[in-house]
Amino acid sequence: MEFIVSSAELLKGLTDVSKAIPSKSALQILDNFLFVLKGKELEVTASDQELTLRTVIAIDKVKSEGSIAVPAKHILDLLKEIPDQPITIKTSSDSSFECIWSNGNSSLPYFPAADFPEIKGTDDTARRFTFPAQSLVDGINGTIYATADDEMRPAMNGIFFDVDIATTTLVASDSHKLICYTTNDVESKEKVSFILHKKAAAILKSILDKEDSNVDVAFDDNTVVFTFGQTMMVCRLVIGKYPKYRDVIPQNNSNVLKIDRTMLLNAAKRISVCGNKASNHIKLELKPGQLEITAQDLGFATAAYEKIMCDYQGEPLSIGFKSPFLIEILNNMGCETLVIKFADARRAALIVPSEEEASTEKICGILMPILV
């Protein structure tokens, strides 16, 4: 194998797929990138056997084709120190390869490509749809923080993709809060669904380029494949049945609070400082035109309250929440004005952007109250 490539282009491609390199692995070969050079394209693969990333890099000049497994850390560390320039990579007969730049070169070991495990995609039963890249990024950003860490219910550790012909909803929940992101720009010919683990979702979000217009999605019972630009991600799905999330979305909460999101967020942060660190309780006292937020810790004799003028239509209401959950939702909503709809002190509150912000009406949050 011998070829010439831009060091910056190679580094970018390797950095993207390096997110699949495991921190610890029983298989030493997985500490390597798989290089497959064919024609004027270098296919680079990294995998931890649960998640695989593959990208194709255009090559300036190819002298001989081939395939090798290259130590990931060594070549990444080297390329980070080489200024952008054409570099030559060529193998020798002693199981090593040279990386040659304008005024120097290095020699690194490589391993047989045959030792790298075979990467299997979807089978013949795969269902397919197309997801706009920006909507996919927005959907993951808007929901991933609500996923759980639950060994007993693995389905809650991922994002549920509920794909329909007209609308598609991404859902995440940890039983205390539930977040839905809905979009109508996904192209699907049938109603399908799957659960993507939050680790895979975070990696997918991090490597999606804003220039990628669409992401092609194919999945079967066990595996999902995302294809965009020159990159492909293959990962195992979370096996399990996701709860019927639509059944828990409140429909008739008649007490309505309309408030500036940033103002409520900052007030909740201030008041939570004086709350009990074990329970994280924070209380909202609602009256027409007024919201009072309070928290206290009797053990340390600390307490705080703050009054905010607001638009509240409904019965006087006192309701408690865990402050980290409320703050997390407020942090991730991204709109200027929020509408929070309450039924009573014991039932879930529905949090949505105000009706005037049509561009952000895709998001809705549900937060379970606590007794204070």
Concise synopsis of the structure shown:
This protein has six helices and 28 strands. With 372 residues, the protein is of the alpha+beta class. The strands form four sheets. A ten-stranded antiparallel beta sheet has the order 10-6-2-3-4-19-18-17-11-15. A nine-stranded antiparallel beta sheet has the order 16-12-13-14-28-27-26-20-24. It has a five-stranded antiparallel beta sheet with strand order 5-1-7-8-9.
Protein architecture, described:
The protein is an alpha+beta fold. Helices cover 17% and strands 44% of the residues. It contains six helices and 28 strands.
Labels describing this entry:
28 strands; 372 residues; alpha+beta; 9-stranded antiparallel sheet; elongated
Topology:
Layout: E1 2-6, H1 7-17, E2 32-38, E3 41-47, E4 51-58, E5 61-64, E6 66-71, H2 72-80, E7 86-91, E8 96-101, E9 104-109, E10 111-112, E11 127-132, H3 133-143, E12 158-163, E13 168-173, E14 177-183, E15 187-188, E16 192-197, H4 198-207, E17 214-219, E18 223-228, E19 231-236, E20 255-260, H5 261-272, E21 281-287, E22 290-297, E23 302-309, E24 311-313, E25 317-322, H6 323-333, E26 337-342, E27 349-353, E28 363-367
Antiparallel strand pairs: 1-5, 1-7, 2-3, 2-6, 3-4, 4-19, 6-10, 7-8, 8-9, 11-15, 11-17, 12-13, 12-16, 13-14, 14-28, 17-18, 18-19, 20-24, 20-26, 21-22, 21-25, 22-23, 26-27, 27-28
